[in-house]
UniProtKB/TrEMBL annotation:
One of its GO terms (molecular function) is zinc ion binding. A zinc finger (CR-type) spans 7-79. This is CR-type domain-containing protein. Residues 7-79 form the CR-type domain. It comes from Candidatus Methanoperedens nitratireducens. Keywords: Metal-binding, Zinc, Zinc-finger. The keyword Metal-binding applies.
Length: 85
């Protein structure tokens, strides 16, 4: 009898709200309103299960400059935007 091969389960994309990694959820960056979350400390992202591979979930590649891949969210891109910059 042939055994059925189990197919690997694909993770579903789960939209949701996460803490802004760029300002660490404070809503402020360098005493100004955070450009990523607009001061709310939270961002809505397309897939909250996957951290950004480029910035490793930090929200920036260089201090003071949001990651252009995830838009500074630290996860996948924001829901309503392709890229922040």
């Amino acid at each position: 009898m042939a055994e059925a091969k189990a197919e690997p389960k694909k993770k579903q994309k789960v939209p949701g709200e996460v803490k802004c990694s760029y300002c660490d959820g404070t809503g402020k960056h360098q005493d100004q309103t955070c450009v990523v979350c607009g001061g709310s400390g939270k961002v809505e992202v397309v897939d909250m299960t996957q951290k950004c591979q480029w910035c490793k979930g930090r929200g920036y590649l260089m201090k003071g400059i949001p990651c252009t891949v995830c838009g500074g969210t630290g996860f996948t891109r924001p829901v309503s935007k392709q890229r922040l910059f």
